[in-house]
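Interim report, section 4.2 (structural modelling).
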Amino acid sequence: MTGPHPICDRLLEYVTGEIGAEDREAFERHLPDCEDCRREVETLTAAWEALPFDMERIKPPRDLKRQVFAALDVLEGKPAPGTWRFAGRRARPAAAIVAAAAFLLVAGGLLWGSIADLFRRDAAPFPPDLPAAVPVAEMEWSVPLQPAEGERNDGYGIACVVRQGGSKQFIVYVFGARRTTGSEAYQVWLVSGSERRSAGTFRVSDERGVGVLTVPIRSDSFSFDAIGITLEPDADGSQPRGPRVFAGGAPPPR
Amino acid sequence: MRNLPDGELMKLVRQRQRQALSELYDRYAELVYSYAWRSLRDEGAAREIVQAVFLRLWTTESEYAPDKGRFSSWILAITRNMLIDRHRRLRKEAAHLVRPEPEMLERVPDRSESPEDRAIRGAFRRQVREAFRHLSAQQVQLLEHFYWQGYSLRELADLYGQPLGTVKSRLHQTLKVLRKHLPAEEGWR
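Predicted structure of the assembly:
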């Protein structure tokens, strides 16, 4: 595997994507001049791309597509279709539900990471190389989350929007939340006027009760009047079924 | 939309055309879901990955270049990238190098075939699995760790107690053996 040039040694990393952008470019510049590498790249790439065939094909659950496109609505800052209305701001969520579609959203598969980790990863462009320098993350605003009325827990949290480079994330972070078991999940609900939509779900597997939800957002006007987090029997609900555990108000006016 | 090639659909996605994303979902969600399930063995986690991948298609700044390879390879590279992140984060949280459970390795690769398998891309899949028979148990394990579990080469060097160069040679050799036993013409998308 070692060719006449030191860069030939990076062949395997090149094929498997374990190479940084700079080395990848260097390797690609080198390819036209190295017949050995060209041949090996072709050979190894064919094998590499055959690897996913070592799996069973499984049909995704039917509701998954709806979930993905509901997540897209949140991403775009649109009220999701089928958002439910409720009578009055002070109404209890459970009593207020009229109808809904399913909108759970676990952005970017980014649960359970440290916040720094989340930013770093989402700022990373595809292909799978991390940028050498990560832009500074800045919090645009934050809203504290407290145990919901009548709820006995010592937990607390924060909902915030963080800008990093060209990307923006809506992040909900809770501490001291009860650990979820089985299919249980926490679900984040955003109330705007008389509309309510799900911003996504997250699980808590951490002993400290840490849970994170991150949602990439585009809209500059992303906002809400109130935020609530319920503990749901599963992550598939289109309306709150479980108790409201955390609550918070509107973001500060901007 | 239905007749458009993947690359054209991806261009429309970049112009914020949901219908194009919907069509790509119909074409590739099963591939991505199966792949994520194969790697994580968990339905909830596989769902999250599918969602993250299709949202990434919507938000990504990077272009899919049809002349550089199939769309399926591109989307699987995105998927694998996310899976690697997840695996590595889980390992980091475990605060030590988690060794895959032996029972899990025994299940892999699962060579049983459903009728659906055969119907969809039976021939090539069979050939891939046939090619796997030419690998040693260690080589199969190496692919499992590196490809599906997202261990880096350096992590594997630590895990196996071998020099990095040795692990690289082994992986290189493993891929060569596979290639040797694959058909010359790829009969798949």
